[in-house]
């Protein structure tokens, strides 16, 4: 086989055989001549440029005769491996990729523009994949092995990493890397068709009038992205405390305190939970509390905070519908160590939650607000949800796209009054219901 074929075909990239040895031997030579640790102060681009230069010299000095293309491909592969993440390196650099999913050494998938595709790449072996994984988790002081086979970590550059290895995984080590999501403005979200201008007017009024808002959706539906954009509507004189598992929010206001929870260390000590942070934040004189994702007993503390003077708080929860979100908050709150009777929790939610914003990811990858609902019930009454905006999807087109329209419904009187008292207009598209039968309501338990 020609050297060109050995180095350049994508199918061969990372495969076993002669080219693998070539890469490995140059990698060893490169590491003999350069101390990677010494270069850790350099910016990534410069570190790469330097390694490429040194390797170029080594190849000219003792390597085979290569064409320009072969030479640059060899350099690229050796440097990729030396820098640590091997074949993942170019994927991490590719800004159009939002998620990298490695399902064992032979199957690498990426998500681009909401669509998932398999790449013609593979690791040489499960061992090589494991080494890459170990390198990733060790940079953040975590360990992965049989006694600790599941690890969540965040790279210094912000990417979120999850690792799960055999025997829990049946198809070899599994690595999932979520790119640090870039933030989008509400204008950008409008241009994607995720919501429209009328809905932004309404949401802006609700945020400024300090309604408590829960953003709900399944995994990857854009909850954090929307939470970030909505948080941007909070007036800049307010003191905002953000609480997250892995800090993703990028608020632009000047008075923001960012808190991040901490997993236990290798000895299982030192954990600080979202719940601890929510409790602590109440002693920090917040005007607003923004909780990245409610997924445990902190639900109770957050609901209590929301109904006792910390109005205008924002949070996301993992749920498939507005009513699911309420049930989920209730279930999570009941997981807390404080025992609160079911009826009291129900009451708590009725007084704490004002608005539910439901997100959905469609088959074509688009993320949209599929409902904005107001919680219009009190005390121990069953939850009554008043839909004020809804996305009506049309059947999928032959090329797999989903189109539809946003519908608006009148606001409950109580909501309109609260907006009025905060000098926020009721956007015309919605209007105000004059009687209960004009509302698009439904009950939930
Ligand atoms: N409205 C949108 N239109 C297009 N892409 C979006 C939209 N919202 C989010 N995304 C992209 O979708 C991906 C997931 O977004 P995000 O992290 O906000 O979702 P999430 O629901 O918070 O996910 P998780 O459940 O994992 O926390 C990111 O790459 C983000 O940039
Ligand atoms: Mg999120």
From TrEMBL:
<dbReference type="InterPro" id="IPR027417">
    <property type="entry name" value="P-loop_NTPase"/>
</dbReference>
<comment type="similarity">
    <text>Belongs to the GSP E family.</text>
</comment>
<dbReference type="InterPro" id="IPR050921">
    <property type="entry name" value="T4SS_GSP_E_ATPase"/>
</dbReference>
<dbReference type="Pfam" id="PF00437">
    <property type="entry name" value="T2SSE"/>
</dbReference>
<dbReference type="InterPro" id="IPR001482">
    <property type="entry name" value="T2SS/T4SS_dom"/>
</dbReference>
<protein>
    <submittedName>
        <fullName>CpaF family protein</fullName>
    </submittedName>
</protein>
<feature type="domain" description="Bacterial type II secretion system protein E">
    <location>
        <begin position="83"/>
        <end position="362"/>
    </location>
</feature>
